[in-house]
Automatic annotation (TrEMBL):
PANTHER family assigned: L-2-HYDROXYCARBOXYLATE DEHYDROGENASE (NAD(P)(+)), L-LACTATE DEHYDROGENASE
The reaction(s) this protein catalyses: (S)-malate + NAD(+) = oxaloacetate + NADH + H(+)
Protein name per UniProt: Malate dehydrogenase
GO MF: L-malate dehydrogenase (NAD+) activity
Enzyme Commission number(s): 1.1.1.37
Source species of the chain: Sporosarcina saromensis
Sites where the protein binds NAD(+): 12-17, 36, 100, 123-125
Superkingdom of origin: Bacteria
Taxonomic lineage of the native organism: Bacteria, Bacillati, Bacillota, Bacilli, Bacillales
Lactate/malate dehydrogenase N-terminal domain segment(s): 7-147
Top EC class, one word: oxidoreductase
Length: 312
């Protein structure tokens, strides 16, 4: 009997791509194909082989292939795009738009060619605009082109709340919506520790500090690393989304989704509460927002639109 495992291709074998590949294999969620440009073929093969050789020690069975050939990605269930350049200290994510836009187009053309039924998860920054570029280039239905930001931003928020309260991160819930930039919208009303709203556990200035640190969470790591951006938490976030899809879990997770009237917006990809399952984004959940929350979401959306205007 041949057991057919699911197949996930990860495009870009840099920090985020390699970490994502390793976590996917370690959790035995699928076989993994790690792809990079021809110039990076040997290092990509080397990383894949090194990961594979961790299998006997960690006790996982999954194939991990490193390649520069998209033929190896044929019939992937999910393709995760991490290809492109990352920012350095002093840069904004939006500074990456010109270079990464072209990379998204090139990569997406190959994905469509070899995996016309795949679900695409996009990580590359500026991620809201890059997800839109992949959507337009692929011609895929909107539910099969999804961006990652909110799982990561919410994970950072939860980390900081747990630290402030000195409680387990497992008991802290939250929801960060909007674009993946300094105007992202942590929804305090929907944030709790052990089911207790954080508003009744923390002082307003403590909450304000956590919101600010969450908004600047990417830059905090960029400044510490000095030559690149975060990858452990971003990879873990991609894997949580991929797992929800591969196992048809119907998880309620924030995703960058295409809006067609939801929250009064049209023609834009933005971080939203969604249900993720085998079909990709199965629903965008429309929360009741207060006037202030709505205003903050619109401000964040206009920052994303400004980047979209630069797109060719
Ligand atoms: N949305 C989010 O929450 C996050 C987004 N990012 C973004 O993810 C992207 C990747 O970050 P890292 O992995 O740290 O960068 P990295 O520089 O370590 O890796 C990027 C890889 O992409 C490869 N690449 C470039 N052009 C390619 C092409 N046409 N086809 C295939 N591979 C190609 C490069 O050779 C390199 O190996 C960046 O744009 C970064 O800003 C990173 C963290 C979080
Ligand atoms: O900050 C960056 O450039 C990478 C990223 O999106 C994050 O870590 O949130």
């Amino acid at each position: 009997m041949t057991l057919k495992r699911k197949k996930v291709s990860v495009i870009g074998s840099g920090f985020t791509g390699a970490t994502t590949a390793f976590l996917l294999a370690q959790k035995e969620l699928c076989d993994v194909v790690l792809v990079d440009i021809p110039h990076m073929e040997n290092p990509t093969k080397g990383k894949a082989l090194d990961m594979l050789e961790a299998g006997p020690v960690l006790g996982f069975d999954a194939q991990i292939t490193g390649t520069a050939s998209y033929a190896d990605t044929k019939e992937s269930d999910i393709v995760i795009i991490t290809a492109g350049i990352a920012r350095k200290p002093g840069m904004s994510r939006d500074d990456l738009v010109q270079t990464n836009q072209q990379i998204m187009k090139d990569v997406t053309t190959e994905i469509v060619n070899y995996s016309p039924n795949a679900i695409i998860l996009v990580l590359t920054n500026p991620v809201d605009a890059m997800t839109y570029t992949v959507f337009r280039t692929s011609g895929f239905p909107k539910e099969r082109v999804i961006g990652q930001s909110g799982v990561l931003d919410t994970a950072r928020f939860r980390t900081f709340v747990a630290q402030e309260l000195n409680v387990s991160v497992k008991d802290v819930t939250g929801f960060v919506l909007g674009g993946h930039g300094d105007d992202m919208v942590p929804l305090i009303r929907y944030s709790a520790a052990g089911g207790v709203p954080i508003k009744s556990l923390l002082k307003p200035e403590q909450i304000e500090g956590i919101v600010e640190r969450t908004r600047k969470g990417g830059a905090e790591i960029v400044n510490l690393l000095g030559n690149g951006s975060a990858y452990y938490a971003p990879a873990a976030s991609l894997v949580e989304m991929a797992e929800a899809i591969l196992k048809d879990q119907k998880r309620i997770l924030p995703s960058i989704a295409y809006l067609e009237g939801e929250y009064g917006m049209e023609g834009i990809y933005l971080g939203m509460p969604t249900i993720l399952g085998a079909n990709g984004i199965e629903q965008i959940i429309e929360l009741e927002l207060s006037d202030d929350e709505n205003k903050a979401l619109l401000k964040s959306a206009s920052a994303v639109k400004a980047v979209m205007e630069v797109l060719a």
